Amino acid sequence: MKAVASIHLFAILASWSITDAFLPSLTPVSPSVSTTARFSTVLVSPREDISTLTESILTPRGSQHSWEVHKFGGASLATAELYKTVGDLLASEASGKDNSSGAVPTMAIVSARGGMTDQLVKVVDSALVDFKLAKTVLNEAVEGQIDLLRELASPEITAKIEANIRNDANDILLLVQSLRMINTVPSVTMEVVTGYGEIWSAQTLNAYLQTKNLPCEWIDARPILMVQSDSLGLGEKGAASTAGVMPLWKETSNNLATWWNTVGMERGMLDCDYKAGVSPIVVVTGFVASTIDGVPTTLKRSGSDYSATIFAKILGASRVTMWKNTNGVYTADPRRVPEAFSIDSLKYDEALELAYFGAQVLHPSAMVPCIDDNIPVYVRNIFNPAFEGTVVQGRCLTLKETASSGKSVNWRAKKGIIPIKGITSVDKVALVTLEGASAIGGSRVAERFMGAMADNNINVLIITQASSESSICVAVPENEGDKAIEALRSSFELELARSTVGSLSVNKGMSIVAIVGEGMNSSSGISATFMSSMARANVNIRLIAQGSSERQIAVVVDKDDATRALRAAHMAFTLSETTASVALIGSSGSIGKAFVKQLKTQRRTLIDELGICPRVMIAANSKKMAIAETAKGLPIDQLDGLLDGDLVATSDLDRISEEIEANVNPHRVVIDCTNNEKVAKYYERWMSSGIDIISPNRQIVAGPLDRYSRVCEAQRESNSNWQYSSSVGSALPVIETLRDLVETGDKVHKIRGSVSCTLAYILSTFDEETSFSEALAQAVEKEFTEKDIRQDLSGSDMARKVVILARQLGINVGLEDVEVESFITEEMASNDNLKAGDLQSIDAEMLEKYREAAADGRELRYKFEITKETGKCRCFLEAVDNRDPLFRLKNIENLVAFETDRYSASPLIIKGAAAGPDLTAAGIFSDFLRLTRAYSSEQA
């Protein structure tokens, strides 16, 4: 018997056609004479067929409602519990719930159990090389389905279904075993085998519904749904096309009516007690269909959505609900844009654009059958059925209607209106480019180029053409890139040989990012906002295309930039709050803790007033670091003691760099609250990656001139921000004022003052009763000094600040160019553990200087002076009289005086408190505010 069956199967495969005799499960019920007669009166045209059929044949008698169609994907049917969830939901929907007008006739379109299709694909793929493996995989698939079935219903219900599944498995084995005889896999074989996943799934769900004593039955769609298919095989997983599969409406309507009037009548579905909440539930296999010749085929991968809307159109359904595991269609993929949210409503055209450009929630073809009859398509969450989800219904304006609607308006002038509905992407894209074909004529180039693509069945996603050189660039699926190049080489073989075509190239590893929405229509500023968001996120655009309908703009970017591009666009159109991803280094130090305190206090203000949400993704000190596990960041309220816990790692600047570089947020900033040389060495790397930096760290900005120049160059090339205002004067606006003077054209001649709170405190505190070393000890206790007091006492701390100011003025000096007067001896300078008590040896000398100054009514001040004309910079101790602004300098203050052309009669003076970590942190926070305002203005 098996030998005969094998011979029969081989004969079928050889002809690439499978007859009804081969498929025992494909047993359409033969229509009765009366049914045939009733049908003969309605088969006129597809639209009329469907309309008349719905009213006269498929509407259950006594129901006040039209059919509703529900579709469930594999993710909703992965376990027995999920099958129960789906069954219970169907029972609830069919009962009409709180609807006083009674129950609702219900059809459910189901996919295969989660993962089943991939298992069946593996069965076929393995059969040629390892039949034993194919058998094992098939057995696992079958036993998994049967185990699940047994959990859902009693043996009385499941025994027949189990026998059907095992019989189907035997047929599959016979079929795939015969493949070894022809040493190939005909596409129809793959479609036949994979379709069993839906058949088993539909029977399993129907088994559970039977346990609830509901009028229910399942339908194998293969003898019902007739299609015309121009392609072979399953298609790519996740593909945005049903690849030329067209339903045959008349034949499908006829077959469905036949089933309804035979099986439906036998099962008592035509006459239900709708007022009592009893309604028929018909479970239909998605994905599978047959050609008019009876050859089994499919609607291609992800085609179950299409099945649902095809049957909805035939039934004249009042709605279609696609049950997913998300709360509808989102503004972007929430896995890549955590701030994405569910869209309330979409037009069919918008949904088609989103689906075409990669939104996996809806299949593009699924919209088409519902458009003519304006059947609403709902996308809802199987795990949150109370949520309304997204409804897709209605059409966008046509091009003619758009043209007559009036002049365009800048979209930002439309208060409260967001012009786009969503942002989506297509990954695994290649750019294929033909360049330099002007010698052979632009029109012929385009014709032959696209002809080569069409002749080789290459799916062109986007096309752009540069008329000046007759160059053409198209985006195609990455796995078709090489095929496209070969097709073009063949088509332009002669021109390439004569060099009238410059070159052909393919660039892989690309992604398409697209914005979609009817609101883009006749709105100016859309492209500018989109492109600006890409630029500020440091995303290089390789191709730009805008649809003539003005409903979408698409760009092609490197795949590694795609997520950052999605988030940047999402923020730019105010679909989400603008977030700043922060790496906080030195978070447990005195300055770091002070900054965290201010951030906690002001975070709500940043969000409410500036629309910026700061999220600390990394917190680190010299020994430990903590890295956020989610896009929400580390808990800011717990940052103070976070690094004291056990769930932290050893601090690693390379790891920190990798994490912040990999962060997909377009707004990334390192806040360095240290003055550490090791940290400063990473500035060039960070800014080269487009990461902004805020810091009082003077190791770079006052460091070796060549390194400072390299970092500045990295900043310019990447367009990143480097804010270091707190490096001079803490929170005082010293650097900002100097920049404003220079940038507004004022000529600065001299800068002088005092910018060392340590020395200001000591020189204002020590006197006849308090020695110099005792005053220093007080400054240390108050945390006014650097950790290494030698930097203060040698004058090097102030000298670094002088270098920073001089460089802002355009004087290229290094620390070695500053004349510095030191308070300590060379022996003290070599003491790595110098303490305040070690300076008692200079107390007498300093007391003498104090007495000399006091005798003339002067005060000792450690001051600096920068002269623009000579480039001379110096730091020195001087006794100043009451005509000098420094005379009244308080012990916690800095003072800077600018002598310029505008301020020649009297210098511009900036004076104020600058001592302690709180004020330094305030300066850092001011820089952060300036940066976040820049982020916010990008979206304005």
From TrEMBL:
Gene Ontology process terms (BP): homoserine biosynthetic process; methionine biosynthetic process; threonine biosynthetic process
Segment forming the signal sequence: 1-21
Metabolic or biological pathway, per its Swiss-Prot or TrEMBL entry: Amino-acid biosynthesis; L-methionine biosynthesis via de novo pathway; L-homoserine from L-aspartate: step 3/3; Amino-acid biosynthesis; L-methionine biosynthesis via de novo pathway; L-homoserine from L-aspartate: step 1/3; Amino-acid biosynthesis; L-threonine biosynthesis; L-threonine from L-aspartate: step 3/5; Amino-acid biosynthesis; L-threonine biosynthesis; L-threonine from L-aspartate: step 1/5
Keyword Transmembrane among UniProt keywords: no
UniProt GO MF annotations: aspartate kinase activity; ATP binding; homoserine dehydrogenase activity; metal ion binding; NADP binding
Gene3D superfamilies, A to Z: 3.30.70.260, Acetylglutamate kinase-like, Dihydrodipicolinate Reductase, domain 2, NAD(P)-binding Rossmann-like Domain, VC0802-like
Pfam families: AA_kinase (PF00696), ACT_9 (PF22468), Homoserine_dh (PF00742), NAD_binding_3 (PF03447)
Domain Homoserine dehydrogenase catalytic: 733-929
Catalytic activity: L-aspartate + ATP = 4-phospho-L-aspartate + ADP; L-homoserine + NADP(+) = L-aspartate 4-semialdehyde + NADPH + H(+)
TM region positions: none
Aspartokinase ACT domain segment(s): 432-492, 513-573
Coiled coil segments of this chain: none
Location of the Aspartate/glutamate/uridylate kinase domain: 69-381
InterPro entries, per database record: AceGlu_kinase-like_sf (IPR036393), ACT-like_dom_sf (IPR045865), ACT_Aspartokinase (IPR054352), Asp/Glu/Uridylate_kinase (IPR001048), Asp/hSer_DH_NAD-bd (IPR005106), Asp_kinase (IPR001341), Bifunc_Aspkin/hSer_DH (IPR011147), HDH_cat (IPR001342)
Keywords: Amino-acid biosynthesis, ATP-binding, Kinase, Metal-binding, Methionine biosynthesis, Multifunctional enzyme, NAD, NADP, Nucleotide-binding, Oxidoreductase, Signal, Sodium, Threonine biosynthesis, Transferase
Cofactors that this protein relies on: a metal cation
Domain Aspartate/homoserine dehydrogenase NAD-binding: 589-724
Record carries keyword NAD: yes
Family per similarity comment: In the N-terminal section; belongs to the aspartokinase family.
Described purpose of this protein according to its UniProt entry: Bifunctional aspartate kinase and homoserine dehydrogenase that catalyzes the first and the third steps toward the synthesis of lysine, methionine and threonine from aspartate.
NCBIfam families in alphabetical order: asp_kinases, PRK09436.1
Name of the protein: Homoserine dehydrogenase
Organism whose genome encodes this protein: Cylindrotheca closterium
Taxonomic classification: Eukaryota, Sar, Stramenopiles, Ochrophyta, Bacillariophyta
